[in-house]
Amino acid sequence: MSIPLHCLAYAVCPRFYDQNYLQKPAPGGTLRRAPNQDVEAMTGVLKAFERIADNKEEEKILREQLNDFIMKKGFFALESVQADAASMEPIEW
To answer: Which pTM does this prediction carry?
Structure first.
């Protein structure tokens, strides 16, 4: 993960946080981990936010919204939203 936008796309894909996905071994047998547990990916996400945001306040809002998504707060806490996130393609979700 060396391109910030790729890191951001990886970090906002709901499938990569799904427990069923995380419990299956990755190719090669290694354990999977959620994007927010990958320091390299999250560093790229923060760099992407720096480039996307118009100012520091907007950058802070992006970080807060990503945190809500990762922690399944607010809208993301709804059972139907979580079910759709696990079953739908990211572009449709």
So the answer is: 0.84
